[in-house]
Design a protein that fits this description.
mainly alpha; 64% helix; 0% strand; globular
Length: 115
């Protein structure tokens, strides 16, 4: 989709949420910004929805849309305690390690299919 992929592939709902977050950050310029690109203002849920909406772009790399959204959903439960300065349980740590290994193996195996 090129340099302007965000404008072409992301739903209005997600774009508007991202714009609200960016505007809120702009109201307090003495703090650093998350990043220059819109993607830095998305949630894990948004990422899953972006991929599902654009499944044709990902189907040769990811097993199924559900494979990804299930993992992102699980990871969001671990993300929340960390974001609020709480430790992760050992089970959550193990889950993240397993998901990372699965993701790493998948990307290594499909690397040649990624543009």
């Amino acid at each position: 989709h090129g340099e302007h992929w965000w404008d072409v592939t992301v739903s209005r709902e997600i774009s508007e949420e991202v714009e609200r977050r960016r505007a809120k950050e702009d109201q307090n310029p003495r703090h650093g910004k998350r990043g220059a690109h819109h993607i830095y203002y998305t949630d894990l849920e948004h990422l899953g929805r972006i991929i599902q909406t654009n499944w044709a772009d990902f189907k040769t790399i990811l097993p199924t849309p559900q494979w990804l959204t299930q993992r992102l959903g699980e990871l969001s439960y671990s993300r929340n305690p960390v974001a609020h300065m709480n430790p992760l349980s050992k089970d959550d740590q193990q889950r993240i390690k397993v998901y990372f290994r699965d993701w790493h193996k998948l990307i290594r195996a499909k690397r040649n299919l990624i543009p």
